[in-house]
Amino acid sequence: MSGTEKKLAERRAFNRATPDAGALAQGIRAGVRTALARGITLVESSRPDHQKVAQALLAELLPETGKAIRLGLSGAPGVGKSTFTEAFGQFLTGRGHKVAVLAIDPSSARTGGSILGDKTRMELLARDPNAFIRPSPSGGTLGGVARRTREAMLLTEAAGYDVIMIETVGVGQSETAVADMVDMFVLLLSPGGGDELQGIKRGIMELADLIVVNKADGDLIPAARRAQMEYKTALHLMRPKSAAWQPHVLLASALKGEGLSEVWEAAQSHHEALSGAGELTRLRAAQARAWMWTEIREGLLGALKADPKAAKLLPELEREVAEGLTTPTAAARRLLDLVVGGQKGA
């Protein structure tokens, strides 16, 4: 079979309604971008037949995952996440790295659709042959992180991308969600001095392995330096996440491409420090266990909602709870007793 015929055969396999896991895995290993995109679409699908193939695909590719540096990027809207991600991604590809960006877009509360604007905002990086950008709708998932982001991350690693960046919507608890799936959590902030520091929740600061004060250019340089000192002081008053790493506070200007090498040096130093102390292995193992329990909880909830006995009882329980005739705990126990046969009065 010639090279052209082989490519055509692979393309036909990718275009089937239900893809073949083996052919898809072969394409992903070979770095075929359409195969990777199709694989991520597959793991994001809610169709049972697609999920069956997706899990077979992940099982086949799992031994080839785990070699990338996983970075989470978050920050309030307007801080310049997409600009920073594009500039940092281009810096890394210029150094010979293959970069995958999994950008989580907010979903519409009414339609469930997403804006999917990150690929448009990162136009230069999207055209880079050594970069792969995948915008995914959050789907209303708690924390604004797409439910299948973890699996998409594994697929990009199997495709040979050695730096994975997950950019969140930066709302509410998205920081906690993304911190639970990456090696290093990077918090992007704008120059704001004391006023900005007062507005940052302590819990978010405690999650950060690295704080980057973005937009440190022009007239904002003095404010950025003041903010840097205040964030450093604040971090020293908090217990670090790891005994092997003290969080850094760096200045950067994504617009001018300044400070990016320092950010990458910090990411490498963090990875080496955690690896040397054995903490990276323990961190990823703990994340995998937490991921499993998340899947168990979501699977049980889905099964509960699909149970015909539960569907019949739920409206009555919701009405009784809303009218104050019973407590939410008692209502939940009645439902669980009915479906899973729990002990009465437990």
From TrEMBL:
Organism: Parvibaculum lavamentivorans (strain DS-1 / DSM 13023 / NCIMB 13966)
Membership in a protein family: Belongs to the SIMIBI class G3E GTPase family. ArgK/MeaB subfamily.
Pfam families: MeaB (PF03308)
Reaction(s) this enzyme catalyzes, per UniProt: GTP + H2O = GDP + phosphate + H(+)
GO molecular function, one term: GTPase activity
Superkingdom to which the source organism belongs: Bacteria
GO cellular component, one term: cytoplasm
UniProt keywords, alphabetically: GTP-binding, Hydrolase, Nucleotide-binding
Gene3D superfamilies: 1.10.287.130, 1.20.5.170, P-loop containing nucleotide triphosphate hydrolases (3.40.50.300)
Protein's recorded name: LAO/AO transport system ATPase
InterPro entries: GTPase_ArgK, P-loop_NTPase
